[in-house]
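Notes from hallway chat w/ T.B., transcribed later so I don't forget. T.B. wanted the structure written out for a chain they're using in a teaching module, and asked if we could keep both sequence and structure tokens in one place. Agreed to drop them here.
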Amino acid sequence: MSIYCSVFEVGFEHKRKCKYDLFSKDVCTCGACPIFYQGSHILPSDRHMRKGEIGIAAIPDHITRDGSDDKPEKGKWQPWLRVHLSKGSHGGDTIILTKKQVEAFRDALNAWLERT
């Protein structure tokens, strides 16, 4: 059983008629998946292949270590965020970010949004 609670996911929910299947070589046809990265020399297009997922998950406040008093304030979550990225095959890469790393990532995303 996971201690994490999913917070956000892209590419996990597809429309019924979508051909995407995590365990096959089919690609997303409904537009729910991120655009598949083709290299730093290729300008992405909405017509390019879509495949993969990205998701984040957090640890709720009621999860603590056995024998430890590391419970955060009521209503606050533990200070780690799990980030999962998959190119569409089973598995993928998962990392854990600290609160400071999430804040820096958020600031970078906000700066990008302001420029687009």
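Follow-up for T.B.: The first helix runs from residue 99 to 115. Might be a good example for the class.
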